[in-house]
Amino acid sequence: MTIFHSLFFLQSSLLLSLAVFAFILQWHDEINYQTFKSLSLDNPEYPSMDCTSRDSRTTSFPYFKDLKFGYNKSNLKPKICITTTTSDGLEQILQWIYYHKFIGVTNFFLFVEGNASIPHVSKVLQSIQNVKLVHRTKELEEEQAKSRMWNETWMSRYLYKPCNYELFVKQYLNMEMAIDMAREARMDWIIHIDTDELIHPAGTNEYSVTQLLSAVHESVDTVIFPNYESCVERDDIQEPFTEVSLFKKSFHHLDNETYFRNYNKSFRGNKNYFMTYANGKSAARVQPYLRPNGAHRWYNYITIPNETQFTEAAILHYTYAKFSYLTSRRERCGCKPTINHLKKCFFLDFDRDAFIIASSATEEEMLNWYHEHVVWMNKDLNQKLIKEGILTRIYAPMVIMQGLKDTGVYASLI
């Protein structure tokens, strides 16, 4: 790595260190900031920096010029909330919450089950300011049984099916309730994402989703974040948010010539450009008659929303970023590992293929499949696709999360 690269990264890390420190001061009621220490700039490089080009490095931190983090959190405008349905563990959810607090999200509505609903996990999450938990109880299911969703014709093909279809229906019902919660909390915008996804507010000089949405024209009702997909470069990732920096860009952020010129190389033997979904996620203004339109969009019962799309900002999707995500799939769904049966369980080809491998292969065979379909180990190919603009390096989330981790916020909560 050249001296230019090192100096640029150190400068960028220092800017984010100062930003993290400002965040610590703003949220001092939740963080024992005496444990704070700024990002260690003499530590080893962040993962995969050795294969980052000058061009990709320059575009990794275009958002930290003129950083301003002096706002009062109680006066943040617009007020933005995130809702999610999750069964993830405490550590991942904490990283996810505090990262989004850092970029300006004010409220969180978490519909929890599985690991996320364990008493000691719930206790920690409920102790965080403006985080509201909803457990999947019999009372909740009885309330959601009254939803008008059950009479929506277009939803009929998703109902009464297992695995991904069941999750999709839960997400829809939870999003309905989250709209009411957002309205009660006087939120301006609502966003639905999963806890393996991060908002990347590119195109703002404050790296702020608050600034991003405040710039949306008042005539716009909903706005789409195209999604970028993680490209892991090792098979032993333990903390995707702090270990993954390489992403495949949405084709919505590419010109057609670049996309088709690199079509075969970027698919890497998979059936689609992305392993999983490709239609992004969206934010909606909290307005009368707002409703979910599936898990990725919002709509309105009365009017057709005016929708636009961000040209730089994105959702970072850390999909299959850990080998254990593959090996655990067979435990998260009771479907038979046959193609015909799995069509009733999973929307996507890749999820079906992954489930079959996880259900029928040996550990060695699973690892080989993971290398072939998920891990980007060819540094020359990666570098070429970075130069072409198909892949990109994004360091901001890992720097922010490492800075927050160094403050001791997670340890003090746990």
TrEMBL record:
One of its GO terms (biological process) is cellulose biosynthetic process. Residues 1-22 form the signal peptide. Transmembrane segments: none annotated. The keyword NAD does not apply. One of its GO terms (molecular function) is glycosyltransferase activity. Belongs to the glycosyltransferase 92 family. This is Glycosyltransferase family 92 protein. It comes from Tagetes erecta.
